[in-house]
Amino acid sequence: xxxxxxxxxxxxxxxxxxxxxxxxxxxxxxxxxxxxxxxxxxxxxxxxxxxxxxxxxxxxxxxxxxxxxxxxxxxxxxxxxxxxxxxxxxxxxxxxxxxxxxxxxxxxxxxxxxxxxxxxxxxxxxxxxxxxxxxxxxxxxxxxxxxxxxxxxxxxxxxxxxxxxxxxxxxxxxxxxxxxxxxxxxxxxxxxxxxxxxxxxxxxxxxxxxxxxxxxxxxxxxxxxxxxxxxxxxxxxxxxxxxx
Length: 244
What we know:
globular, alpha/beta, 9 strands
């Protein structure tokens, strides 16, 4: 592990303004990272991507997606929390990557626009835009990700089928266990959350707390649906009919 602690450093903010209006951010003081793989989970708008983006900002990665070397602009990528947090390292590293699934197309376009030979070497030898969405993500994981680095991933499952999520788990395991990489991942995937011995941090209205895999809504809802599909769909669709 490289990144040890994330803490709030600046108290000069109004808690009723974004992003401090988000409960998990409003109550945030510090976070000690205990393992090479940490997951952020919670509903949309719970603050997990906000904190992940702030970490990327403090790492000096491009908050639209990429590393320190990927310089391009994207209006919606500014980090509102970035200036308010501080990172503690042991040792300090600069290698890594921030994957932002929603703006990955812009990152891929940026790579295409670079004017130097070998620009596709770290992405499977061809443009990411000439690969399917899932193929482009796996090309990034397989060829761009290397040892002694920190990887910040915002919903990496967005382009991956269940089978390819399993492939990604294997890639992540090799990088974390054999090459000493550190991962912080915001996800909704019950498959990715099943990674062994990871820290899972739940973001909710009460703030942020560490939970076991089986305690996550992602696991519980998926398990219940698979075991009681017909019953759940009948109840859910009957509710829709009542509303209409």
